[in-house]
Design goal:
- The complex is a heterodimer of chains A (about 475) and B (about 650).
- Chain A is built from three helices and 34 strands.
- In chain A, strand 18 and strand 19 form a beta hairpin.
- In chain A, the strands form eight sheets. In chain A, strands 20, 21, 22, 23 and 24 form a five-stranded antiparallel sheet that branches. Chain A has a five-stranded antiparallel sheet with strand order 31-30-27-28-34.
- With about 475 residues, chain A is mostly beta strands.
- Helices cover about 5% and strands about 35% of the residues of chain A.
- With about 650 residues, chain B is α+β, with helices and mostly antiparallel strands.
- Among the domains of chain B are: about 140 residues, Cytochrome Bc1 Complex, Chain D, domain 2; about 110 residues, Cytochrome c-like domain (Cytochrome Bc1 Complex, Chain D, domain 2, Orthogonal Bundle).
- Helix content of chain B is about 15%, strand content about 30%.
- In chain B, helix 5 packs across helix 9.
- In chain B, about 55% of the residues are buried.
- Classes of the chains: A mainly beta (about 475), B alpha+beta (about 650).
- Chains A and B meet through strand 32 of A and helix 8 of B.
């Protein structure tokens, strides 16, 4: 849907919010490409994880060009969350035509400033991003929290315009009793998102991964502890993120995060990497100041202020430039309404291996009302393996039981398996650094038919009553 | 005696390849394909390339001897200036190269000629060509220059030759697909590896599937006797070995497949671990260490080389198109400071390599042979599929120069297809390529459980790719009508698990796969005549009545299902081999080209040998009428099959 505004009242409001001034003089002396940044009177980086508004006083995308900034979508009352297409020609963002609107998904061409509405739902839609399949995804507010949905059809051409009927084809890819907020698309095609750890039940912001068809959800790393958010993949393949007052990174050789030498400050989150390898970060010295855009040379002690506004937080910088295109994920989901899961050795865990094999495993699901249901138990083999059929597309978790039915280990959070997905887990929370041993799991020597755990029993308790 | 060669098979293979290349786009059903720029061509109009495979440095460090497989020559380069000194023609598909300890002699194995070229390094001429075993590969000379050891890939042994006369003195049993040899620094031992796993123990059902097993065969160089076999558990595909100069640490590059587990996804090393096994006094019990990382794999390690000061170990990684630099001190520290798993393997720890891999150095296409200069300052890497040699500075661990051996033109469609076959770049996080399972474009000798068939269901044996043109449909179940479909969307979805090549690259890959020629059959005489046993076996193969003069229904004769020049009617049959875990009992009659090489047999690899197809898995005579045969007659039938 193409927008033809011209509504004077809105334009006046926009002009008041986004003036062409107030930028640091440093910006003109730096040879930066054009940058799109979200300017907001106030910004709460983690609000969306709790289902709250990140920009309670509105926000506006600014295009920073040659040291001066101009509103990018002045027709709209609010705009935020810019994501530039792989060819650098278009920008996807969240916007509102009117103050009372929900956040919607918009796209604009950067050359002709042609604007069109891609998705407007019955509730907020934020953080849109392009996929290499020709589709896009965003976080859509639902009752339990923001969930990520993929929109549009696979064109096979990552540079082709998104189909105009994209909003009619929505595929939810997260199924959490909590919020999932997109952070980036990795070069391997997986979506990096932030949620709380333990997933679906915790309170610590953490980075997770999921394929673009919703399969394969997992923690990026399992050295959980400090809050991590605002993840962004660098050209090196490392993923940089913030703890709030410092930066850190995930790097392929390490199972734990690695510190990043960067100046002290409060970091808002999303980071942009320039072609010369510098980082455009959004920082402020303390909570009383506004976030400003600063340029950090990796390893250097200081940083240079690039753009600042005395009355605005400047956050979510993105470069207006071509960028590496992630791989497209070819979905291999089967046309089923259930999923299969094979655990190779449930005794294994980062929390300490169980000395003896559990006798059985109980599947718990969470219904839409937040009630925990038991779907029954399945036997666990002496080598710790089990093979079960579970309901797809809903929160699930496993509890390992001893011979007396007593829980010997249970997942603290929830995850899901997509309908039609066949998944293998090495152990129970073994961490991504743990590969499988090459042996046939005992359960497959006994049967190749998964134990059916798809039918939920009556609810026993709510998640809240369990205290998790 | 009669000839088994048909007119088709008498055609020079390279001419057939030319015809295939011309209509490559038709074969794969794709349109608008334009052949890429052609490189140099041979007399038949086929593009020719250099394909440097191995490198050795002369004892004085002044020369590089580069084994160029497709050019069928050894190129002698000045190590300092990289200038070409001379090209020396050798035989077909040369594979191994070694210098005598004095440096006076250079030995080159010609794997398709079954010969060894002996080169005088002063005159730079071939002074002798000796007949050796079947598909000679690795070669080393003993320290005294009295004997030469040659690893024969097809006959699975190491031949011991008299260095003066070339006469073969004995054969030593090695692992299956014996291929690479190294002499210990003190000259006392020769270590041999092999590219296919050794035969598995007898099994009668899938419940007895066992991980592949390989070995390092240790030979006493002076006595020319096998003195040890170091087991390599769960390894299928073992390549070069190297020793630290002090002889206290050996390292061998290898593949550790995860074939016993359903191939459901690639993350967390779902299909392969790529590892080194370390052995020697520095580590005590041999120990396996991974080269992979959490999100980046070291797909298909091949060459290994220590620096003279033992500070670093370099590993060429053919599928990942890079060289890994390993800090040896940190490697040993890791091995000794971490609790040793009961399996003596750290392969499942994807974070281990971060402790000792200090650089991942991008090089050219399909890096293979690797050699360190005598002063330890440079590492030379043979990039087989772009005709270059990368020179790495060991102080910076960066490529500082590239030696071009070819004409630098863009690759032809065929060459591009070959590059695609050997790279891991299209799979998720670069874990696998076609060549991970089709070693040197052949097979891997193991069975796999593919996810779409179901966990634990329809286990399938991996098959040889040579000579498959015209044998469609593909897959054991015959459900893929063409190579383009076999290697296209299906591969993307269930193997690569990531966005793969474009249509043109797929067409080039298909062209390459369909053009793979069959290697010479060592059980068939060059003139195509059959031995008496083979003649008798042929009669059994084609018979229409059994021993008791009862007619054999046409559909139950060997020659019915295995008809045609390649031994396949290309039709689907139920020969009674379905197992309880199979989704179907209908399988395409597999072709018979070089069937003798490709054990195990049957769709699920349950038969370890051709004999077992009938002695164990044909109780009801559904797989041909065979239960009336005497042992000798069955042997004759197998002798005939070996000639196919």
């Amino acid at each position: 849907m193409r927008l033809s505004l011209g509504a004077g009242a809105i334009a006046v409001l926009i002009a008041a919010l986004s003036v062409r001034c107030g930028l640091s003089a440093d910006s003109s002396q730096l040879s930066l490409p054009d940058v799109i940044v979200t300017a907001a009177p106030g910004y709460q980086p983690l609000a969306a994880l709790s289902g709250k508004e990140r920009f309670p006083k509105g926000a506006q995308l600014l295009l920073v060009h040659n040291g001066s900034a101009e509103p990018l979508a002045s027709q709209l009352w609010a705009s935020a969350d810019a994501n530039v297409s792989f060819d650098g020609q278009r920008v996807l963002f969240a916007g509102k035509q009117k103050q009372t609107d929900h956040w919607q998904i918009w796209e604009m061409t950067l050359r002709g400033r042609s604007l069109r509405l891609l998705y407007a739902g019955s509730d907020d839609a934020i953080r849109p991003m392009y996929l290499s399949s020709g589709q896009f995804f965003f976080a859509q507010r639902t009752a339990p929290g923001f969930q990520i949905v993929v929109a549009g059809t696979q064109s096979g051409d990552p540079f082709a315009p998104i189909d105009s009927n994209a909003s009619a084809k929505l595929l939810p890819i997260t199924y959490l009793p909590a919020s999932a907020i997109p952070d980036d698309v990795l070069l391997d095609g997986r979506i990096l998102f932030e949620s709380y750890f333990p997933l679906g039940s915790g309170t610590t912001p953490e980075e997770f991964l999921v394929y673009a068809d919703g399969s394969g959800v997992e923690s990026y790393r399992c050295d959980h502890g400090r809050a991590r958010w605002g993840g962004h993949q660098l050209a090196s393949g490392d993923v940089i993120f913030t703890h709030g007052t410092s930066l850190a990174r995930f790097t392929s050789p390490l199972a734990h995060e690695a510190p990043v030498a960067a100046p002290h400050g409060e970091y808002a989150g999303a980071i942009a990497e320039t072609q010369s390898g510098e980082w455009l970060v959004s920082t402020r010295p303390d909570a009383q100041a506004h976030f400003a855009l600063r340029l950090v040379t990796p390893g250097a002690a200081g940083m240079r202020t690039v753009f600042s506004r005395s009355d605005r937080d400047l956050i979510e910088p993105v470069l207006v430039a071509q960028r590496a295109r992630p791989h497209r994920h070819p979905s291999a989901l089967h046309p089923w309404n259930y999923a299969n899961m094979l655990s190779l050795d449930s005794r294994l865990s980062r929390e300490g291996d169980l000395k003896t094999a559990p006798a059985s495993v109980r599947l718990e699901t969470l219904d839409p009302q937040g009630r925990i249901r038991s779907n029954g138990t399945a036997p666990v083999e002496s080598d710790g393996s089990f093979f079960v059929q579970v309901p797809g597309d809903r929160p699930i978790r496993f509890v390992l039981l001893d011979r007396n039915g007593k829980a010997v280990r249970q997942e603290r959070g929830w995850f899901w398996i997509r309908a039609g997905e066949q998944r293998i887990c090495v152990g129970c929370h073994t961490g991504p650094e743990c590969a499988s041993e090459n042996r046939v799991p005992a359960v497959l020597m006994r049967t190749t038919t998964p134990f059916d755990l798809t039918n939920a029993k009556p609810a026993t308790q709510t998640q809240a009553s369990r205290g998790n | 005696m009669s000839s088994v060669l048909t007119n088709t098979r008498k055609l020079p293979h390279r001419l057939a390849v030319a015809a295939l290349a011309v209509c490559g786009s038709c074969l794969v059903g794709l349109s608008s394909l334009v052949p890429a720029t052609h490189a140099a061509q041979d007399e038949n109009g086929i593009e020719t390339y250099i394909s440097p495979l191995e490198i050795v440095v002369s004892p004085d460090g002044a020369r590089l001897y580069v084994l160029c497989q497709d050019a069928r020559e050894v190129r002698v380069l000045d190590a300092a200036t990289h200038a070409l000194i001379k090209s020396i023609a050798v035989g077909q598909v040369p594979r191994g190269i070694a210098l005598s300890r004095s440096g006076d002699r250079l030995y080159v194995t010609n794997s398709w000629d079954d010969t060894l070229s002996v080169i005088d390094t002063h005159q730079l001429t071939v002074v002798a060509t000796w007949a050796v075993g079947a598909e000679p590969s690795g070669v080393v000379s003993d320290p005294d220059g009295k004997q030469i050891f040659v690893a024969n890939r097809i006959s699975n042994d190491v031949a011991v030759l008299n260095a003066r006369t070339g006469a073969e003195e004995k054969r030593l049993k090695a692992g299956r697909g014996a291929s690479y040899l190294v002499l210990s620094p003190d000259g006392s031992r020769i270590y041999a590896t092999h590219v296919y796993p050794n035969p598995s123990p007898l099994r009668t059902g899938l419940e007895n599937r066992t991980p592949p097993q390989s070995e390092i065969t240790v030979i006493d160089a002076a006595r020319a006797q096998v003195v040890d076999r170091i087991p390599l558990k769960s390894i299928a595909g073992v390549f070069h070995l190297a020793f630290s100069p002090d002889g206290r640490l050996g390292a061998v590059a290898e593949y550790h497949p995860k074939n016993m587990i359903p191939l459901a996804h690639l993350e967390h090393g779902g299909a392969f671990a790529y590892t080194l096994t370390l052995f020697g006094a520095d580590v005590g019990e041999p120990v396996e260490v991974p080269l992979d990382e959490l999100e980046r794999y070291a797909s298909q390690p091949f060459g290994v080389a220590f620096t003279p000061d033992k500070r670093e170990l370099y590993v060429s990684v053919a599928g990942s198109e890079c060289v890994l630099a390993i800090d040896v001190q940190r490697l040993l520290q890791f091995v000794h400071s971490h609790p040793r798993p009961a399996s003596n393997s750290f392969e499942s720890d994807l974070a281990a390599s971060g402790n000792y891999v200090v650089a991942r150095i991008p090089v050219g296409a399909n890096p293979r042979g690797i050699a360190v200069s005598r002063d330890g300052r440079s590492v030379f890497v043979a990039n087989r599929l772009d005709d270059t040699i990368s020179v790495i500075d060991t102080r910076s661990n960066r490529v500082v120069s590239m030696i071009a051996l070819g004409d630098g033109k863009p690759p032809s469609a065929m060459r591009h297809g070959e590059q695609t076959f050997y790279t891991a770049r299209y799979s998720f996080q670069g874990q696998i390529g076609c060549s991970s399972c089709h070693i040197d474009s052949t097979f891997d000798g193991i069975t796999w459980n593919l996810e779409p068939d179901g966990f634990g269901r329809s286990i399938v044996d991996n098959k040889l790719l040579e000579d498959i043109n015209g044998t469609e449909p593909y897959k054991w179940t015959g459900t893929n009508p063409s190579v383009a479909i076999e290697c296209g969307p299906r591969t993307e979805k269930y193997f690569w698990r990531s966005e793969q090549y474009d249509d043109r690259t797929l067409a080039d890959l298909s062209l390459y796969v369909l053009s793979l020629p069959p290697r010479p059959n060592r059980w068939r005489s060059p003139d195509g005549e059959l031995t008496p046993a083979q003649e008798r076996g042929k009669a059994i193969f084609e018979r229409s009545v059994d021993t008791f003069k009862k007619p054999i229904p046409e559909s139950n004769r060997c020659s019915y299902c295995h008809s045609g020049p390649k031994g396949t009617s290309q039709k689907i049959f139920d020969v009674g081999t379905r197992k309880p875990t199979d989704n179907t009992g209908l399988f395409k009659a597999p072709m018979l080209t070089n069937i003798v090489l490709t054990a195990p047999y049957l769709h699920d690899g349950s038969a370890r040998s051709l004999e077992e197809i009938w002695t164990i898995y044909n109780p009801d005579d559904k797989h041909g009428r065979t239960n009336d045969l005497t042992k000798d007659e069955l042997n004759d039938l197998i002798e005939y099959l070996r000639s196919r």
